[in-house]
């Protein structure tokens, strides 16, 4: 007889509007132009999604010099430096920008602060494609990266009265708030976003994890290891009281030893993980345990983003 296990299923979870839009752009381009369609960088950070699109005829490349003349190319949802569309134009490539509109909002803010003569601080993680794209919106040195509270304490501004900050959209809400509070304490006149830069989907998924974490022994977060928002969900689960939290790409990656001596587990998915992977994980747990599943919804999401012109009627 299988042991009993309670599963608390976080909602919202999985795909956000920016990810759905990016995937749709690739699918529409394939439908309109036929394969292959080229994509610079992983369209979203999820191997399952990337492999499905590869099966449809998408070709993923790191740089534009890998794109043959006359073939369409798509920029990933994370955003790109301004040099990338400039290069595409100079090579006369047909390109579509799948940058999430909420990332584009941060780019616009950076340019507005720059025009206002501000030195700009970007709270984010070095090397992440979104951060690389945001840094690349302005001349080198115009944006200073702040990764930790220690960075915020040590930073010495050119002019403390001409400072502004922006943030990566997929940060831990609590950690980002801690860094912002240090900057505001040190530089009371620092300008910030008109509306929080951390996106609605990141915020909602972290709030959903907080709602269930204290009622779970552990938490499974479905997502890829290079997914920033998925890694933040693991951190939030541990901070909120889970004994363990694990990031898994597929059901086959689950460490079943983690389930020992527990009677409740939380399940969620990062913003680039499709719902079919959630169901795959639940089926795998159900093969070993008699499940009672409770979905805990903290908020409903009804956000949608328009597709680029040229693909809307494909």
CATH superfamily of the largest domain: 4-hydroxy-3-methylbut-2-enyl diphosphate reductase, catalytic domain
Q: What CATH architecture label of the largest domain applies? A: 3-Layer(aba) Sandwich
Q: How is the main sheet built?
A: 5 strands, parallel
Might you state the CATH topology name of the largest domain?
Cobalt-precorrin-4 Transmethylase, domain 1
Q: End-to-end distance, in Å?
A: 53 Å
Summarize the structure in words.
With 314 residues, this protein is α/β, with parallel strands linked by helices. The protein has 3 domains: 4-15 and 200-297, Cobalt-precorrin-4 Transmethylase, domain 1 (3-Layer(aba) Sandwich); 17-97, Rossmann fold, CATH 3.40.50; 101-186, Cobalt-precorrin-4 Transmethylase, domain 1 (3-Layer(aba) Sandwich), CATH 3.40.1010. Helix content is 37%, strand content 19%. The chain contains 10 helices and 12 strands. The chain has helices spanning 17-33, 47-56, 83-90, 101-115, 129-135, 149-154, 173-186, 200-213, 228-239, 275-286; strands at 4-11, 37-40, 58-61, 73-75, 95-97, 119-123, 143-146, 163-167, 218-222, 244-248, 264-269, 290-297. The strands form 3 sheets. Strands 10-9-11-1-12 form a 5-stranded parallel β-sheet, with helices on both faces. Strands 3-2-4-5 form a 4-stranded parallel β-sheet. α5 (129-135) links the parallel β6 (119-123) and β7 (143-146). The longest helix has 17 residues, at 17-33. It is flat. The model has no long low-confidence stretch (mean pLDDT 95).
């Amino acid at each position: 007889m299988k042991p009993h296990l309670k599963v608390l299923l976080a909602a919202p979870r999985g795909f956000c509007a920016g990810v759905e839009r990016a995937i749709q752009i690739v699918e529409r381009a394939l439908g309109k132009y036929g394969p292959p369609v080229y994509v610079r960088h992983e369209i979203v950070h999820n191997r399952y999604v990337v492999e499905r699109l590869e099966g449809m005829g998408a070709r993923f490349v790191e740089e534009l010099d890998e794109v043959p003349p006359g073939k369409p190319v798509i920029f990933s949802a994370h955003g790109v430096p301004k040099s990338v569309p400039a290069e595409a134009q100079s090579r006369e490539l047909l390109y579509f920008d799948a940058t999430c509109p909420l990332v584009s909002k941060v780019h616009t803010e950076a340019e507005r602060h720059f025009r206002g003569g501000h030195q700009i601080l970007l709270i984010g993680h070095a090397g992440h494609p979104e951060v690389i794209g945001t840094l690349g919106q302005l001349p080198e040195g115009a944006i200073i990266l702040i990764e930790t509270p220690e960075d915020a304490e040590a930073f010495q501004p050119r002019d403390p009265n001409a400072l502004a900050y922006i943030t990566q959209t997929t940060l831990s809400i609590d950690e980002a708030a801690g860094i912002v509070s240090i900057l505001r304490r040190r530089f009371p006149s620092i300008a910030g976003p008109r509306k929080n830069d951390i996106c609605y989907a990141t915020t909602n998924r972290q709030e959903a994890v907080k709602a269930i974490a204290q009622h779970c022994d552990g938490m499974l977060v479905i997502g890829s290891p290079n997914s920033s928002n998925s890694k933040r969900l693991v951190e939030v689960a541990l901070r909120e009281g889970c004994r363990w939290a694990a990031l898994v790409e597929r059901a086959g990656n689950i460490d079943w030893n983690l389930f020992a001596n527990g009677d409740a587990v939380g399940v969620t998915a990062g913003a680039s993980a499709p719902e079919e992977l959630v169901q795959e994980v639940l089926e795998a747990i159900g093969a070993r345990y008699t499940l009672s599943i409770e979905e805990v919804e903290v908020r409903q999401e009804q956000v949608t983003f328009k597709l680029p012109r040229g693909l809307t009627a494909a």
